[in-house]
Amino acid sequence: LKAKLEELNSEIKKLEKEKEEHSVKIADTIEESARLEKNLQEIEITYATKKQELDMIDSQITKLEEKMTKLKNQVEEIDEEKKKLEVSKEGTKQVIANLDKEMQELNAEITQFAELNKDNQTYIDDLNTDITDLKISVSSFDESGTSLDEMIARIEQDIQNANASIETKQADIENAKLETTKNEEAISNFEQEIEKIKSEVTNSSEKIEALKNEKTVKNEELEKIEAQIES
Fold it and tell me: Which segments does the entry list as coiled coil (predicted)?
């Protein structure tokens, strides 16, 4: 019986030792499980963060592509406006050319008129003097005097009208030249704006390319994280 008791005690001690070992293993397993759970949570957080970053990059790419499309449309609109201004500029140049031609023709008419009436003017001046003298002594010459006065007045009025027309044409030419200058300035401003927008388009393209590269890197990181989760 004593031997049996000793055997039982030995068996009990053995079982208690195994129990302690199992308890240690269980504790280690629980600790390892907790560690793995914590790692899994960290991986999931990292995954969610990377996924959010990727979504933000996609959003930025979309916005930049929309902006680039808008800028391209603006460039097309400005090009169209520039073409219209070029047409307007050519029209203004034609107006100036026409006005110059009219001025030359008008000057030629004035020169011809002055040449043709040069002798008449001297004759009229002499007649005027004679008529003035005759008016004093002969009242019957009043009507003739009046007719000559009207002729002189009409000639002077024609000259005034011609001068006024010249001044008007000159003013039209100056206005046309001013309009041409404004159109040239507008065209220059449009060209600068086009260059600015083209520069922005180029920069946007570079940003989109950089974001796409970053997106590729983030995708690779996500794939690695997903592989870790699956394993």
Answer: 1-119, 152-228
Cβ atoms 59, 140 nearer than 8 A: no
- What amino acid occupies position 151? M
Per-residue pLDDT of the chain (231 residues; tens, 9 = 90+): 667 677 777 877 787 777 777 777 777 777 877 777 787 777 778 777 777 877 787 777 777 777 777 877 777 777 787 777 777 667 767 766 776 676 677 667 656 655 655 555 555 555 556 555 544 554 444 444 445 556 556 656 766 776 676 677 667 767 767 777 776 776 677 667 667 766 766 676 677 677 777 777 777 777 776 676 666
Chain centre distance of CA 86:
17
Nearest CA to 193 out of 95, 79, 37 is that of: 79
Q: Which of 1.10.287, 1.10.1330, 1.10.10, 3.90.1530 is the CATH number of 2-230?
A: 1.10.287
Domains of the chain, residue spans: 2-230
